[in-house]
């Protein structure tokens, strides 16, 4: 069995003691930094997927190709959102009043956004692409539903119940 270096064991013990003394969760600034670190690549990837989808939509020779491109877009958005959701969940529960509720709210929001993209993927996948007008109308309906679901679930850090977390989100470099 391999033994840890004495310095590493002391650091681990100190970190464990500090976390226990603080209620077991990360301090507000640490939690906010973890959440922003999880969300930044998600936002970037969604932007990249949107740009690519717009380029592909302009270049799609027919509704069948447009359908394939949109399904791929929404599949990518669903997967990248789920990855962000997992990272936010892994950030734990911040050591602030109502920390559990706040953390669960972030995870629930990302779950709802992920599901909205999944619904859009399924909706586009179910459209017929044989008639361009019918397909176009169907896409518009799916996009309206997606926009509604996304708006209803979009995260808003300004409405947090915690003054500590609002301040942390405003101050940590990862959130700028």
- Structural class per helix/strand content? mainly alpha
Estimate nothing, just give the exact number of structural domains: 1
Q: Give the low-pLDDT segments.
A: 1-22
Q: pLDDT average, as an integer?
A: 83
Query: H/E series, N to C?
Result: HHHHHH
Q: Classify the helix fraction into a percent range.
A: over 70%
**Which CATH class applies here?**
Mainly Alpha
Rg, Å, rounded: 21 Å
Beta-strand proportion: under 5%
CATH architecture: Up-down Bundle
Main β-sheet description: none
Q: Figure out the total of helices.
A: 6
Instruction: State the total count of DSSP E strands.
Output: 0
**Mass-distribution shape:** elongated
Distance between the termini: 44 Å
Task: Return the CATH topology.
Answer: Four Helix Bundle (Hemerythrin (Met), subunit A)
Describe the structure.
The model is unreliable at 1-22 (pLDDT under 50). This protein is 76% helix and 0% strand. It has a single domain, classed as Four Helix Bundle (Hemerythrin (Met), subunit A) (Up-down Bundle), CATH 1.20.120. It has helices spanning 6-21, 28-59, 63-90, 99-125, 132-153, 163-171. The chain has 176 residues and is an all-alpha fold.
């Amino acid at each position: 069995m391999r033994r840890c270096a004495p310095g590493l064991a002391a650091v681990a013990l100190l970190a464990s003691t500090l976390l226990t003394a603080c209620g077991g969760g990360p301090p507000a600034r640490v939690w906010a930094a973890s959440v922003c670190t999880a969300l930044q690549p998600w936002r970037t990837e969604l932007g990249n997927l949107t740009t690519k989808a717009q380029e592909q939509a302009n270049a799609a020779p027919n509704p069948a190709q447009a359908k394939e491109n949109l399904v791929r877009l929404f599949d990518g958005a669903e997967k990248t959102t789920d990855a962000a959701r997992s990272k936010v969940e892994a950030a734990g529960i911040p050591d602030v009043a109502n920390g559990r509720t706040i953390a669960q709210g972030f995870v629930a929001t990302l779950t709802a956004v992920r599901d909205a993209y999944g619904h859009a993927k399924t909706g586009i996948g179910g459209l017929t692409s044989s008639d361009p007008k019918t397909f176009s109308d169907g896409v518009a309906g799916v996009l309206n539903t997606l926009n509604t679901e996304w708006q209803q679930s979009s995260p808003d850090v300004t409405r947090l119940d915690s003054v500590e977390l609002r301040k942390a989100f405003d101050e940590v470099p990862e959130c700028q």
